[in-house]
């Protein structure tokens, strides 16, 4: 056997002593040969498992206007869960998220009409963010045709539920002398009683309230201010 092995090595041009003296590879060592110039194969890092957002967390993301960015950051992994909660479970925050994703083409091909449909379904269940967004869209003509009357209806409802963006938008409209004067007092009261931590937003609110006050009877403004102090 040794003679045949030696003869084979001679025919192949190999040294018998190379095999005899070569140290055994360490246990677990990679013994696969690496050819010169052979490119290294890079493996993509595994996707991290993403947990579906709780309704509270999603509500916070929506208020902060970070919901679409969060879906992008999560590589659209939760699309099926989001869609199921919007369509089958009819959860308002998920209807809003799903509608916004469709409206702006995030993780889906853009379908603005269907997106607005789901945002309207969320609004019909009283979600303030959905009411505010529809009011703003109808007021400014974003994705839909301008409709001042519909804008006021949506914004007024959202503002009454404490949505700050709706309160600011509504007072801005009324401060320009638009809308029904019968609504001015409510809009003034809602915004004047809002808790606003951001300094710039607080200054904007104060300016808008001062402008709206010029369109209202002085005694009504004084009464609202007094009620706000007592409250």
Automatic annotation (TrEMBL):
Superkingdom of this protein's organism: Bacteria
Keyword Nucleus: no
Classification via SMART domains: SEL1 (SM00671)
Stretch forming the signal peptide: 1-20
Presence of the UniProt keyword Signal in the record: yes
One of the Pfam families matching this protein, by short name: Sel1
InterPro entries tied to this protein: Mitotic_Regulator, Sel1-like, TPR-like_helical_dom_sf
Keywords, alphabetical: Signal
Gene3D superfamilies: Tetratricopeptide repeat domain
The protein's name: Sel1 repeat family protein
